[in-house]
Specification:
The chain is α/β, with parallel strands linked by helices and 261 residues long. The chain has a single domain, classed as P-loop containing nucleotide triphosphate hydrolases (Rossmann fold, 3-Layer(aba) Sandwich), CATH 3.40.50.300. 40% of the residues lie in helices and 16% in strands. It is globular, with a radius of gyration of 19 Å. The C terminus is likely disordered.
């Protein structure tokens, strides 16, 4: 049975959806079968980050009972599979988000990881997504408001029976006044799975003519490399750090040859 992980934040603007998209691809690169579900049925953005906003059948249709879940699964970047949420506000008003648990339960045998991109806050849709997950991974920024909201969401997830496994700190700039990794771990009483640096390449990924997650477009940028390390920590599998392999020049090779003599 695969692991069902809700990626949650409590506060909007933490980059949770971006983390979900890129983390899913990083897991797929480690040989895992990955399904991403946009569980933010009110403000769906995951399809925009993946460049898949024109999918005809969505999670809305499934939750309304108008389509089967397998009809709403699409091929995403680098082998990930994806269930988008609809953009229709009329459908959103009619959606029964409490059906999400039964939808997810139909899929757990087919994937190693199912990542749910959870809306911010603690409204009904968020509660349904947390209830549908076995585990929750928090995403926060190194600021007091974001950490306070993450703590509230952690408590809610635990009460709903989802094991909170850790926290990802995003948009780290190492500026004075930022809350440190160790302090965040102590405040939330959670292990920090990674410190994702503020990286201009992430923003640039949204500004291309063809939108693509940063880990696809710039796999060797600092944010991509840290997300790859997070995937490694979650799976216990080693990342092939090919992008960091130093090119050895002719003189270095020659010097190395004589050292061996």
């Amino acid at each position: 049975m695969g692991r069902v992980i809700a990626v949650a934040s409590g506060k909007g603007g933490t980059g949770k959806t971006t983390i979900t998209a890129n983390l899913g691809i990083a897991l797929a690169r480690l040989g895992q079968k990955v399904l991403l579900i946009d569980a933010d049925v009110a403000m769906a953005n995951l399809s925009l980050i993946l460049g898949m906003q024109s999918s005809p059948i969505t999670l809305h249709d499934v939750l309304l009972g108008e389509a089967q879940v397998h009809d709403a699964i699409y091929d995403g970047p680098e082998g990930v599979r994806f269930i988008p949420s609809g953009l229709s506000l009329d459908n959103y008003k009619r959606v029964d988000s409490e059906r999400l648990s039964s939808v997810v339960s139909q899929l757990t045998e087919q994937y190693d990881f199912i990542l749910l991109d959870v809306a911010a806050g603690i409204e009904k849709n968020v509660l349904s997504a947390l209830s549908a997950s076995q585990e929750t991974l928090m995403v926060t920024m190194p600021t007091s408001p974001a950490i306070a909201d993450a703590l509230k969401t952690k408590i809610v997830a635990q009460r709903l029976g989802s094991k909170v496994i850790g926290v990802i700190v995003n948009f780290v700039m190492n500026e004075k006044g930022e809350i440190t990794k160790n302090d965040i771990a102590n405040m939330l009483e959670l292990p920090v799975y990674g410190n994702v640096p503020y990286d201009p390449e992430v923003r640039k990924s949204f500004m291309q003519e063809k939108v693509a997650p940063v880990i696809v477009r710039k796999p060797d940028c600092p944010a991509s490399e840290e997300i790859a390390r997070i995937a490694s920590r979650i799976t216990g599998l080693k990342v092939q750090e090919q992008a960091n392999t130093k090119k050895v020049g002719f003189l270095e090779k020659l010097f190395s040859f004589f050292k061996k003599k």
